[in-house]
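FORM 12-B: Structure-to-Sequence Request
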């Protein structure tokens, strides 16, 4: 990816975190949800575009990649301003664009999901594209129902909930990267493990999403614990057989963020299960969960993709990783509550992101 194009993502991802703190300047109920911009600019406009870029496989961003990004930014803007007719139209165009890319890379029907010998990295890659396209389609259907048809009435069937689903494709593409950096194993045990990990992670996410809609806490806990165990097992396998290098270091740090995200998610469900949940006092827990997932785990995967041809990168990996953890796991959640800390979080985030994106690498494309 060219340095110029990385600057665009640098600005976009910085704005994403900035919008996550705008409630300090617009307190109380407002007509427009800055949370939507916060989520869209990172997960869809940045993450979705990088997934398409990675799939197309060209060092220079193609017309298709640029078109997706332009439409995604347009979608974020019109959804923010509640222009749902335009949002539905754009989301359907994006759906077609993503699914065309998926079919061109893989196939119409995901037969590879059911072929044990197909590498898990390829399965997760196709799942990321399928999840992204379905997320866009489902969002269009939800907007159509909630704003116009009103055929289904469910308090959980809210736009913001489905918009959060755009984080799943970014998570899946990061799993694809992790498995691609695992040393090839010929044993039956690893074949069983990678297929089990693929199905447990994907079905766990789907089940978790469904049980949130039907509001069954026990099933939410089952899905969350299953995902946690699978993530731990995957992390162990990656630690044991992952190819050594900076990519492994960054992705291992990302897995640490994902484990924190899983633990906080389980803690949130337990609060509901034991009827001790309080919306006010649970804000720090929820914010920690959101920030470590988006700007921790997902960011690690996205930065490895954007610098894919540049490794090894000339930076102090440990120092940047420590700064990344301080930003995401401490300053950002506290910054949601206190404005001065929010300013510190944004500034340190800019520092981390700058070194991720612009430290000199072994390969340079002008």
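FORM 12-B RESPONSE
SEQUENCE OUT:
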């Amino acid at each position: 990816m060219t340095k110029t194009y990385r600057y665009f993502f640098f600005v976009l991802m910085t704005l994403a975190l900035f919008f996550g703190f705008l409630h300090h300047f617009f307190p109380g109920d407002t007509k427009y949800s800055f949370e939507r911009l916060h989520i869209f600019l990172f997960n869809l406009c940045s993450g979705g575009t990088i997934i398409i870029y990675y799939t197309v496989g060209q060092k220079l961003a193609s017309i298709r990649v640029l078109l997706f990004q332009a439409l995604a930014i347009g979608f974020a803007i019109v959804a923010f301003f509640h222009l749902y007719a335009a949002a539905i139209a754009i989301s359907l165009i994006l759906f077609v664009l993503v699914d065309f890319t998926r079919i061109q890379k893989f196939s119409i029907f995901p037969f590879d999901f059911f072929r044990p010998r197909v590498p898990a990295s390829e399965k997760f890659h196709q799942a990321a594209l399928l999840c992204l396209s379905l997320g866009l389609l489902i969002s269009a259907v939800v907007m159509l129902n909630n704003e116009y048809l009103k055929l289904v009435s469910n308090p959980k069937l809210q736009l913001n909930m489905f918009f959060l689903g755009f984080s799943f494709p970014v998570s899946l593409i990061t799993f694809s990267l992790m498995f691609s950096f695992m040393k090839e194993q010929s044993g039956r045990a690893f074949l069983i493990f990678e297929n089990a990990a693929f199905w447990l992670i994907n079905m766990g996410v789907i089940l978790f999403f469904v049980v949130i809609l039907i509001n069954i806490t026990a099933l939410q806990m089952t899905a969350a614990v299953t995902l946690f165990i699978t993530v731990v097992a995957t992390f162990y396998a990656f630690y044991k057989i992952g190819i050594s290098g900076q990519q492994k270091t960054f992705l291992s740090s990302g897995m640490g963020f994902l484990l924190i995200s899983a633990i906080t998610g389980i803690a949130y469900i337990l609060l509901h299960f034991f009827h001790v949940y309080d919306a006010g006092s649970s804000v720090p827990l929820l914010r920690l969960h959101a920030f470590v997932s988006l700007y921790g785990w997902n960011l690690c995967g996205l930065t490895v993709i954007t610098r894919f041809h540049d490794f090894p990168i000339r930076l102090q990996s440990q120092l940047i990783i420590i700064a990344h953890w301080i930003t995401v796991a401490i300053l950002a959640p506290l910054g949601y509550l206190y404005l001065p800390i929010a300013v510190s979080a944004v500034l340190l985030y800019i520092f981390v992101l700058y070194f991720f994106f612009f430290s000199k690498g072994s390969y340079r494309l002008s």
